[in-house]
Each structure stands twice: as C-alpha cells, then as structure tokens.
Specification:
The complex is a heterodimer of chains A (329) and B (97). Chain A has helices spanning 17-28, 41-60, 62-66, 75-100, 106-114, 131-152, 158-186, 190-209, 221-226, 234-252, 277-287, 291-304, 306-328, and strands at 262-264, 269-271. Chain A is an all-alpha fold and 329 residues long. Chain A has a two-stranded antiparallel ribbon with strand order 1-2. Chain A is globular, with a radius of gyration of 22 Å. In chain A, 40% of the residues are buried. In chain B, strand 1 and strand 2 form a beta hairpin. In chain B, strands 2-1-3 form a three-stranded antiparallel β-sheet, with helices on one face. Chain B is elongated and about 70 Å long. Chain B has two helices and three strands, in the order E-E-H-E-H. By secondary structure, chain B is an alpha+beta fold. Chain B has one domain (3-94): Phenylacetic acid degradation B (Ubiquitin-like (UB roll), Roll), CATH 3.10.20.520. Classes of the chains: A mainly alpha (329), B alpha+beta (97).
Chain lengths: 329, 97
C-alpha cells in the first residue's frame, strides 16, 4: 500500500551538484540518514509524504475491522481482532513519530488527513461486508503490506527503517489470524466456503493495486530507488506477492479470480491478467465506495475527542501551576 | 482542528528491555502530562513484553550535538596511538597483561 505514498510526490530538489553528490555517496555507502543530518529538500518531502501516508493508512485501516468487533463469531476471534486493531493504531503512532523527526508536527499531518489533502491506501476505501472479509483483509491486505514493508526495514532513513522493523515483527500475527479465519470457513458448510470465495473475489484485485502503478507508469519510482527509500519496484513486489499467495489460495481450495493467471517457467513466478487501473485511479481520487465514510469517521473521532485533549491540557497546566505555587511557599 | 488548539507536548520514550540492560530509545509519544505519557508509552511501545521499565522525557529537554560538529567531536583521533595498549612494548616473559 505504501508504494502509493509516492503518487504525486514532489521530489524536485534545488541543492547544488556537490551537495547532492555527497548525499548520494552516503546513500550508496548504505549509511543511514538521521533526523538532524543535512538532506536534500526533495528527499525530506518525499519521506514526509510517504511516511505520513503510511501512518494514515494504518489509522484508517482500523475502520473496516472495527466494524466487525461487535459481530466477531467467537470470543477468541473478537479478542484477536481487537488486538490486531490496537496494533494498527500502534503502527500509525510509530510512523507519526518517525515523520515528526522530519520537522512536521503531528497536528499538521493529522489535519492533512482530516481535510482530505493527504491520501491513505486505496484498499481501505473498500467495504468489509462479511466476516470472511476480515479473513481476506488479514491474509491479503496485511500480506501485501508485509511484502511492501520488509524492504522498507532497510530504507535509508533511520527512523522510518526502525519503525518498520517493529511493524514487521507484529504484522505476521495479523496475516496468520486472517488466513486461519478463511481456513475455518473453507472447512465449513457450502455457504461458508462460498462466503470465503466471495471475499477473495472482491479483495484480490484491490490487494494487487496496493503495490501501486506499473513501473512503466510510476514516475517517482526511480528517484526514490536511487535514494534507497524504496528498494524494490512496484511490479517486482506485486509479482512476489502473487507467487507467494496463489499456493495459499490453492490450499484453501479457493480459486483466484484471474482467468489469465499462469505459471511462468522462465521467471519462476506467476503472470497475471490486466489490472483495472481506471478503478484504481477512481478510488485514489476519492470515488471509492467508502472514501466519504472513512473521512467522516476520522473527522468525527477527532472532533468528539476535542474535549478530552482540552481537558488533558487544562489539567496539565493546572498541575504545573500548583507545583510552582507549592514550590514558592 | 481550530488554530488556537494547544499542541500536545512531545515526549521521547526509552525502554529497558530487561534488568541488566540500559534504557534504549524507542520512539516518541504525545501527551499533556508525564503520567499520561507513561501510560501512552506503555500502550504504544510495550504490548509484547518489550521491557521492564520505561522513561519518558520531554523532547524539548534533550540537547543534541550538531551533526556539523561531527568531525570535531567524534574524530577517532587515530594519531594518538599511545591511547592503545599495542603502543607499549612489554616483553613476552611478563606474560599476559
């Protein structure tokens, strides 16, 4: 999902050649860049955009699953789902913490999400309409996220790479809990298996879109790869994901909804049919089924939490004043 | 968000993974006061037994060295070879020292 963070990124940079060459030499030597280091404006802007969008995706990603907490079929599923949602919130916070090291405030990036200026992954603009969707989200959406995030652990920007290490450690439980939900459904009644197949049909293509546009269409890929922010191209990651996932679908006895899916002996990976990029761009531009509802939910949470933030700040101020008063006496 | 809203304070979070090890920086957290900062740091950074002790420090209280002074401050001083044990000739008969 995080490749989408580069869409529309402004990586233009105006430093002199010598500065850029010195910076590139550090990157090429696999030196990590840390917050106070000198860095090109384009590098900083690209990271702010990508990390903020990644953080927003984690936060908005809690919404489709939150929808199912009260309707999880068993106490065990409910407890696992709540733990997963809490992790997603945590991941958002690790990432906000990383983006703040680049000189932007939490309030500023939050405001950009709430106003609709900043984007989040297109995948969360699809609705989770059955319990099987929760399985498919864990298996496919978190699976695709892991595929994207593992190379980000080696990203050239230190705080982002460190946040990714923590995220990746926690993410594998998410994928396994999703797959297990589908295993149960596939071993159940015909209706349950049909429900699992229906979820795969609806989540397969949007999951593949999470990797972003084709390399030939992606104008920001190359600069980002040169700066070692992104280390593997969109198409390569997508191919890896498909190749890892198709046998998992076969194990479930489900059919991947792509009649053109074919094993390629030469590349030892799967070739896929065409992706509906019109749908992708439509969702990115805000016309997905859930775009409006997701933003409304985030705005509602922010607005309704205002009194809590105000009360916390007022209490902190009052305690501080009391301490000063007591110290003076 | 209104413009006059107070920005919540930023805190740096340090975790001691287990007794015997030093606290290590884990990330940051927003909180109005120290008590809530500890609670928030616990929820965000130690959900799976990552530590046995937490420190939270207002980010504004940290004074950092300037990366531009890096050479001056952290020059390995390789010319001061007398700082290393191999600079001194001790006869083998003395044994391990």
């Amino acid at each position: 999902m995080y490749s989408q963070g580069l869409i529309g990124a402004d990586d233009s940079t105006h430093e002199d050649e010598e500065f850029l060459a010195r910076f590139q030499a550090r990157i090429d030597a696999e030196e990590k860049i840390e917050p106070n280091d000198a860095m090109p404006q384009g590098y900083r802007k690209t990271l702010v955009r990508q990390i903020a969008q990644h953080a927003h995706s984690e936060i908005v990603g809690m919404l489709p699953e939150g929808n199912w907490v009260t309707r999880a079929p068993t106490l065990k599923r409910k407890a696992a789902l709540i733990a997963k949602i809490q992790d997603e919130g945590g991941h958002g916070l690790y990432l906000y913490s990383a983006v703040e090291t680049l000189g932007v405030s939490r309030e500023q990036v939050t405001q950009e999400l709430l106003s609709g200026k900043a984007k989040y992954s297109s995948i969360f603009n699809y609705p989770a309409i059955t319990w099987a969707d929760i399985g498919a989200i864990g298996w496919l959406v978190d699976g695709a996220a892991i595929m994207n995030q593992i190379p980000l652990c080696r990203c050239s920007y230190g705080p982002y790479a460190r946040a990714m290490v923590r995220v990746c450690k926690e993410e594998s439980f998410h994928q396994r809990q999703g797959y297990e939900i589908l295993m149960m459904l596939c071993a159940g009644s015909d209706e349950q298996k049909a429900m699992a197949q229906d979820a795969l049909n609806r989540w397969w293509w949007p999951s593949l879109m999470m990797f972003g546009p084709h390399d030939s269409e992606s104008t920001h890929g190359s600069q980002s790869e040169k700066w070692k922010i992104k280390r593997i191209s969109n198409d390569d990651l997508r191919r890896k994901f498909v190749t890892a996932t198709v046998p998992q679908a076969e194990f479930l006895g489900l059919e991947v909804p792509d009649p053109e899916l074919k094993w390629n002996e030469k590349t030892e990976s799967y070739d896929i049919g065409p992706i509906d990029w019109d749908e992708f761009w439509s969702v990115v531009k805000g016309n997905g089924v859930m775009n409006k509802e997701r933003l409304e939910a985030r705005n509602k949470a922010w607005d309704e939490g205002a009194w809590v933030r105000e009360a916390a700040n007022a209490f902190a101020l009052k305690s501080q004043e009391r301490e000063q008063l007591e110290a003076a006496q | 968000m209104s413009n006059n809203e107070t920005l919540t304070q930023l805190w740096e979070v340090f975790i001691r993974p287990s007794n015997g090890l030093a606290h290590k920086h884990a990330g940051s957290i927003h909180s109005a006061d120290s008590e809530m900062a500890v609670q928030a740091a616990r929820d965000v950074y130690t959900r799976r037994g990552e530590g046995t002790s937490l420190w939270v420090v207002p980010s504004s209280a940290i004074v950092a060295s300037d990366p531009r002074d890096k050479e001056e401050l952290f020059d390995p001083a390789d010319d001061k070879i007398y700082r290393h044990p191999s600079f001194y000739n001790i006869p083998d008969e003395v044994g391990h020292m």
